[in-house]
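Notebook, student rotation project (T.W.).
Task set for the rotation: take a protein with a known small-molecule partner, predict the structure of the complex, and write up what can be learned from the model alone. Partner molecule chosen: zinc ion. Sequence and SMILES entered below by T.W., checked by me.
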Amino acid sequence: MNTLVCGDCWREQNLTFAQRLDPAFIRPGIRYLCPEHLARRDELLGRTGFGKTAA
Ligand SMILES: [Zn+2]
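Predicted structure of the complex:
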């Protein structure tokens, strides 16, 4: 039974706020995100698209 740990949840639980902002602590290997963080990431990506929201 393999338990996948959400990358963002892992950082929140194991790193301090300052460490989370440090690129040295970013783990590119962790790609799994829980549904909550996945939705949040999609939301951020959708909003940061320049030119897309120009009506
Ligand atoms: Zn998460």
